[in-house]
Every structure is written in structure tokens, then in C-alpha cells.
Amino acid sequence: MPASPAPELAFCYCSQRKPGAAKHSLDQHYDGRGNGSQCYTSLSRLIVPQIVISYCTQCGAATAYVIPPLDSLPRAVCSRCGHIHYENPRMVVGCVAEWQGSILLCRRAIQPRHGLWTLPAGFMEMNETTAEAAARETLEEACATVEIDAPYAMVNLPHVGQVHLFYRGRLPDGRFAPGEESLETALFAPADIPWESLAFRSVAFCLQHYLRDRETGSFGFHCTDYAPR
Amino acid sequence: MPASPAPELAFCYCSQRKPGAAKHSLDQHYDGRGNGSQCYTSLSRLIVPQIVISYCTQCGAATAYVIPPLDSLPRAVCSRCGHIHYENPRMVVGCVAEWQGSILLCRRAIQPRHGLWTLPAGFMEMNETTAEAAARETLEEACATVEIDAPYAMVNLPHVGQVHLFYRGRLPDGRFAPGEESLETALFAPADIPWESLAFRSVAFCLQHYLRDRETGSFGFHCTDYAPR
Fold first, then answer.
1. B124 DSSP 8-state letter
2. pLDDT confidence band for B229 (50 / 70 / 90)
3. Domain ranges of chain B
4. Domain B90-225 class?
5. Which of A66, A118, A142, B23 is 20 to 30 Å apart from B145, CA to CA?
6. Closest-CA residue in chain B for A139?
7. In chain B, whose CA is at the least distance from the CA of A63?
8. What is the ipTM of this complex?
9. What CATH number has the domain spanning A1-87?
């Protein structure tokens, strides 16, 4: 169950609710006094934005979370100019970069999971493709130029509003070094992968499938969803 | 080439630039007086946010687009509280929903591409998975309950900051009807797909591969990138 949000966000995710119909609060929902049976999703799906949008990005006036006409979810709507602020999940994109049978990992120099190992990956930026994001992150975190191959694994983390996407890739020259966000970078043979010190479940999911598929020589596209630990 | 952005956004995407180093303007770049040779990407990749963030979402003060320490891209940073506003691509998720060999399409009742046909799809929301987004959009746009199968196609549209993802799916009972965002909904046999009246290139890409793969019975995961028309 998510942490209790600010009171003005306490609306449940009811896709059945029509514009203008009464909404019920998070407390009502918890108490069983709300319209729970009409809700599209369970309690675990109550909308809890990662960052509260309190002021309008266009004019600076205060916002309120209301359900706009023809919409089904509460959005931060400007009290002055009416601008609607949408919040959407973000993509984290990276790759499994291979060199002579070993895999490039980075030990994180930043939070979260400082000091743990990860595949090079990070938030996708505007104006780039997913493959470009994977290559850029590998360059930034491991100073490595990677040849990107096919998409390989996708992991949903709905509780944090993220979708993780990993590509397969190759290091053409085996050159790498720690970038500013890495304490160290190293190549790991399959038997040496530091499973107990991996930073993220999505990285473990990707590597497990990758090593298994590599034995058969047949790479698919693997997906899973993770709930909060 | 993107439309000319507001002057305060006119910084090019230079991943080589270190924090604090001078940035060059969009005009300098166009004129050839900038550091073009040091740029990570071509002119077509100049960062042009879809919506300018002029005021801070946390305190309402004015922002300025600057490159934060240890970052490589300009972000809208609050002049008072220092809050950094990140903008990232959004995912549009939908599905190919099949019933007795035919495919469910929706004729759009909203802009953009009002009146043209599309697969049920829309912006992924916070606190849902990609498969849930595909099912929700099919319910909203075609009043259809769909059984979601595997991810099938991904299309990057970096110039509009979008990644389109389509699943394969099945209508368990063949029931559907136009939702609020659809003028009409209909099942199309492969020979009757309205190719000339499809709303989006990503939909055409997905359907072309889908029909081809269906003949062989082997469905992969197909990806492409589209530049502006």
C-alpha cells in the first residue's frame, strides 16, 4: 500500500466515474465507505504522484487536483489559466554490453543503491530514441562506445512510475572506464556476476534471461512486472 | 528541423560539455559558429521541450533553463527553491485486438487525426503497467475487454518525445462499441484494413508486421524509429 498522500491527492482511480460525478477520498476508500466496488483497480493502485504539482508551469498560479472534463483521473489543473499538468511514467533504458563473453557492469557512485552493481542505464531524454538512450547511458556511465542490437527485456515498476528497457549490445573494442556516476566499471564472466550485489531487480531479471538465452543462442524479448518489495 | 524554440531554450545537446562550460545557442549552431563538431547529435536533435516550464511546480517562482551540476542537458531550474524539472518521453501504449481473424480499429473522435482509424492506444498513466495501459485504452476507446498477450511492436518518435508500444491481444467475446474518444469502432479483415485512412505511422507499421507474421504463425518483437514527415 502506498504511503499516504497529501489530502488534495486523495482521489481513487475510478475509470467508471463520469465527469462531474462525486469523487471519494482515500480515507473513505480505506474505511470501506467509498465506492470501492466501482473502482477499476485495487487499493494498491491509488494514484499517488511522485511529485506534487502545486503551482502551474505556465503562469505560476496555484493548482488543484481535479478530474478534467472527459478525463477519468485527477490532474493538477491551474486555478487561473486552466492548464492541465499530466504526469506519466518514465522510461529507464540501458543495455547488456558484451565483450569476449563477459558483460559490462557499473558500480553506482550515486543514489539510489550507491555502491551496488548495475547494467549501464538511465532515464531516457527528450529527442532521442530508446537505442540512442541505451548507447548514451553506456557512454556516460562506462565511457564505452557500444553497438546496440535488439531490445531484449522490459520491466514494469508501476509503483514508482517507471518502465525499464534493456537492449543487447556489443563493445567493439573492449574499451571502458568509470564515468562520473560510476565508482568502477568491470567485465564479468557469467560465473562471476555479483548477484548478491546487484542494484535493481530489473537488472537481475535481464541478466538471468540473457545468460540462459545465450546458452541456447536464441534471444527473445522478455517482460515482467514488479510490485514494491 | 524543429520549429525555433524560445530563446532561453536555445542550447544544443552536447554530451561532451562539462558542467560549467560555455554553452552555445541555437542560432550559433545554425550559423555554423557553434561547437558543432563537439556535439553528440545532429541538428535534428536540438532539445526543444514540448511545453516550456516557466514556473516552478513546487513554489511558483520563475524558472530558467540551465545545466545543473553533474548534468549534461538544460533543465528548468527554479530561481528561488532550486527545484529541477525533468522532462522525459511519454509512452503511448495500445494493442492489436483480434476476433475471429479480424482486427479491432477505432475511428478517432478527437484531435490529432480526427476521423482517421487507429488501434486502441493512448498515453500510459502513472501506477499502471504497460499491459494494463493497453487493456485500459481498449476499454476506454472501444468498450472492449481484451486479453493481453505479448508485446509486439515498439516505435520511437523522438521529435515528439514519444515511444509507442503495441501488444498482441484477443477479444474473448467479440463485444465492442465506440467509447467517448471514438466516432465508431469496427472489426477489419486483413484485406479490408483502411491503409489510406490510418491515423499514425506507428499503427501502420504494427499492422503490416502483424498481418505478415500471422501468416507464418511466428510473432517477434518489431521496432523502428520515425523522423518528422
1. P
2. confident
3. 1-87, 90-225
4. alpha beta
5. A66
6. B15
7. B57
8. 0.80
9. 2.20.70.10
